[in-house]
Amino acid sequence: METKITGTTMPVLEITLAGGEQIIAEGGDVAWLTPGFDIQTSTGFGSGGKGGFLSGLKRMIGGGQLFLTQYTASGAGGFVAFAAQLPGTIRELAIDPADQFMVQSGSYMASTPQVEVSVGMQTKLGAGIFGGAGVVFQKLAGQGVAWVQLAGEIVEYELQAGQSLLIHPGHLALYRAEMQMEFATIKGVKNKFFGDSLFLAQLHGPGHVWLQSMTPAKLAAAIEPYLPDKSSSSSSNDN
C-alpha cells in the first residue's frame, strides 16, 4: 500500500493498493478510483474486526455513517482517491494500542481494516450552543493506519504533565486519546453565540494536540450572506 497527499488548500488523498489489499472509508467520500475494485458496504466495517450492527451504531452516534464501504483491489491492483471536504490538510495516523486518537466528528476519511472507528466522547453544551448538538469526538483505535481531514491551518502543542490548555471546541481537531478533557465556563465574554459565558474545552497533558484555525461553523457563517435567499426564491415561484 502506498499513499500520496497532493494539493494545498483542498488536498486529495490517493491510496494505491496491491492486489487483495483493502481500505475502509465512508462510501460517499470517494472522489475517483481505477476500475476493478470489489466494493462492499456493511455496518461491520470500521469495527477493527469486531463486526456487528452495534459497532456501526456506536460509530453513527459519534457523527459517522452507520455503513462504511470496503474497497478491495483486484489482482492487478489500483488506486482510490478521497478529496477533502473543507479547505485544510490531511494527516496520516499510525494506530496501535499505544497510539489511539480522538478526532472531531466529520474528520475521519479512511482507514485500514483493523482500525476501529467509534464514538469517543459526546457532550451536550445546552440549547443555543452549537445548535444544541454539543461536541462529539470519534475514537480511532485498533491496529493500522487512518487518515483524517483537518480544517484550515494546523497548530500543534505538546502538553507536559500538569499543563493544560483552554480551547474553543470548534478549533480542537485532534488529540491523543489518553488525555483528559473537561469543559470550563469562562465568565465575562459576550458574543452572539454564547451570551454571558464562553464554553471552552480544557485539555490536560501529557499528550499531543492538533488545533485547526477554521471551524465548519465559521466557514458556514462566512459564506451565508452570499447564498441565494430561499424565501425570496419560493415567493418568486409562487407568483
TrEMBL record:
Superkingdom of the organism of origin: Bacteria
Query: What is the protein's given name?
Result: AIM24 family protein
Species source reads Microbacterium rhizomatis
